[in-house]
Amino acid sequence: MGMIDKVVPAKDLEAAALDLAGTLAMKSPGALGLAKRAINTTLEVSLKATMEFDLLLKADAFKQKMPVKL
To answer: Domain extents for the chain?
Structure first.
């Protein structure tokens, strides 16, 4: 399952992709890894399990001193 963040005309696709890649490159690799893990895991479980997993990831991020947006 894919996620759509933004829709752009085909002629602007490469520029938009490079802009997004640049934005992601400035983020914490650890935080991006946790976000990817959360998205992939929560697509397959219940809401309760998703919320529990979210708390575990936030605790992991806290231990690693990563900024966490609540």
So the answer is: 28-70
Going from the C-alpha of 61 to that of each of 11, 26, 41, 64, the distances in angstroms are 38, 17, 16, 5
The mean pLDDT value of the chain amounts to: 82
This prediction's pTM: 0.53
What the block records as the tokens of 40 is: 């992939």
Within the chain, what is the greatest distance between any pair of CA atoms? 43
Residues 6+ apart with CB under 8 A from 31: 61, 66, 67, 68
Q: How far apart are CA 63 and CA 54, in angstroms?
A: 14
